Amino acid sequence: MEVKQETNTAVTYTAKDFASDQDVRWCPGCGDYSILAQVQRSLPALGIKKENLVFVAGIGCSSRFPYYMNTYGFHTIHGRATTVATGVKCANPDLSVWIVAGDGDLLSIGGNHFLHILRRNLDVNLLLFNNRIYGLTKGQYSPTSELGKITKSSPYGTIDNPLNPVSLALGANGTFIARSMDRDPKHLQDMIKRVSEHKGTSFLEIFQNCNIFNDGAFFLYTEKDTRPDNVIYLEHGKPLVFGANKDKGIKLDGFTPVIVDLNDGNSSINDLLIHDEKSRDLAFLLSSFADRPGYPAPVGVFLDIERPTYESQLYSQIESATAKKGKGDLDDILKGTTTWTIA
Question: What are the respective helix, strand and coil percentages of the chain, to the nearest 5?
Answer without folding.
Answer: 35, 20, 45
